[in-house]
Amino acid sequence: TFQHRPLRGTQQMQTQVQESVQVWQNIQKARKQELAEMEEEEPMKISKSDAEKIALNFAEVLKKCRKEQRRVHNCSSEEDCSKASMDLTMCMAPVLCPVQRGHLRKTLEEDDDEKIEAALETLNECVVFQTAQRALAK
After folding, report:
1. What is the pLDDT of residues 8-53, one digit of tens each?
2. What is the per-residue burial (b if ≥16 Cβ within 10 Å, else e) of 31-47?
3. How many other C-beta atoms can be found within 10 angstroms of the C-beta atom of residue 111?
């Protein structure tokens, strides 16, 4: 016959739960300390000459890519916005990221989807980085 047993863990299981809770609290505490230390770090600095170069590059890009910027600003669907964003990235690339753009062009000739995707990602990261640099240069 069936004997009903209480659904309680053993003493060892209860100890393990307490240890797990303590480990989790220690992880959270360490992460908070890490984030606090990161906030205290000195922000990246840009020299005056680099800031001027960045400003000139972006002035050129803003003038050259007005049409693409308007398309990004006015896009309505996810697909349309994705295409517009890629067009803007490709418009900005010759000025902001010429090396990555050249690599993408070579990769497009190879007809290898994985390499093309990686080259596009690298180009996009470069444009994003340059945009962040612009924000620091202000």
Report:
1. 777 777 778 888 888 888 888 888 888 777 666 656 677 888 888 8
2. eeeeeeeeeeeeeeebe
3. 8
For 50-74, b/e burial (b = at least 16 CB within 10 A) is: ebeebeebbeebeeebeebbebbee
Q: Are 108 and 123 in contact (CB under 8 A)?
A: no
For the record, the structure tokens of 109 come out as 């000739």
Amino acid at 53: K
What whole-number distance in Å separates Cα of residue 127 and Cα of residue 73?
A: 17
126 to 19, 26, 51, 61, 131: CA distances (angstroms): 45, 37, 17, 14, 9
CB atoms within 10 A of CB 9: 10
* Closest to 70 measured CA to CA, from 57, 78, 81: 81
Q: How far is CA 20 from CA 13, 24, 93, 137, in A?
A: 10, 6, 49, 46
